[in-house]
Amino acid sequence: MSRVIVITGPSGVGKGTLIRLLRERLPDLGLSVSATTRDPRPGEVDGVDYHFLSEADFDRLVRDGAFVEHAEYAGRRYGTLRAELERRAGAGEPVVLEIEVQGARQIRATLPEAFQVFIAPPSGDALRERLVGRGTDEPGVIERRLGVAEQELAAQGEFPHVVVNDRLHEAAEELTALVQEALAGPGRLGA
Ligand code: ADP
Ligand code: 5GP
């Protein structure tokens, strides 16, 4: 369970985009598919982008202890399934978790050896532009996410590594170098 990489930061900052570039550069890196109670966006596939669950099924999994971490984010629930991590980490595959800040804190407590990186936007305006430009969320949802982002940005000092996603390819190089270094030797994760 030691080769776990947590990528956190506010919605719209570019976590998903950076993780895609990171995995192109480091193809051995697996990605944990989270569970959520939010509706699929157009094009999202159940079991690939998320395990899309009802509230009742999510609750049952919480009761069964199936989550390594879980949190409520902007009125929906999200969680990392223990089975996802065990399947990948158990096979010796390093695995990336793309999660919000409350979940990252839980991982810090339960898996202190996990390597955590906070992705920050160059400015609040850039974050808003990216959320609007992505075109996946209604205006009300965007405002709600920006409200959460203020609290998340205030928490970035908790994280040992912060990458500012200003110019995408520079940020991807910086993230890749950090993750490569973290994976380079035993005992380095969490450093
Ligand atoms: P997150 O996964 O953190 O919610 P996404 O990866 O979906 O964020 O990125 C949000 C939007 O911002 C997408 O439309 C993406 O193409 C765009 N984006 C990501 N990184 C950058 C960047 N460095 N500069 C400009 N736009 C970016
Ligand atoms: P979205 O709805 O945009 O896919 O995700 C909303 C937020 O939930 C993002 O910040 C994303 O990183 C986070 N998230 C996705 N999966 C998980 C998870 O398994 N656990 C937690 N805590 N957050 C998650």
List the helices and strands and how they pair.
Layout: E1 4-8, H1 15-25, E2 30-31, E3 35-36, E4 51-52, H2 55-63, E5 67-73, E6 76-81, H3 82-90, E7 95-98, H4 101-110, E8 115-120, H5 124-134, H6 139-154, E9 161-164, H7 168-183
Helix pairs in contact: 1-7
Number of extended strands: 9
Helical content band: 40-55%
User: What's the number of helices?
Assistant: 7
Characterize the biggest β-sheet: 5 strands, parallel
Report mean pLDDT, rounded to a whole number. 94
Give Rg in angstroms. 16 Å
Bound molecules: adenosine-5'-diphosphate, guanosine-5'-monophosphate
User: Secondary-structure element order, as H and E?
Assistant: EHEEEHEEHEHEHHEH
Q: What spatial order of strands do you see in the largest sheet?
A: 2-7-1-8-9
Uncertain segments are none
Instruction: Indicate the proportion of strand residues.
Output: 15-25%
The SS-based structural class is alpha/beta
- Overall, the morphology is globular
Distance between the termini: 16 Å
Can you walk through the features of this model?
There is one protein chain. Helix 1 crosses helix 7. The strands form two sheets. Strands 2-7-1-8-9 form a five-stranded parallel beta sheet, sandwiched between helices. A four-stranded mixed beta sheet has the order 4-3-6-5. The mean pLDDT is 94. By secondary structure, it is α/β, with parallel strands linked by helices. The longest helix is centred in the C-terminal third of the chain and has 16 residues. Bound molecules: adenosine-5'-diphosphate and guanosine-5'-monophosphate. Guanosine-5'-monophosphate binds next to strand 5, strand 6 and helix 4. The site of guanosine-5'-monophosphate has 15 residues, from strand 5, strand 6 and helix 4.
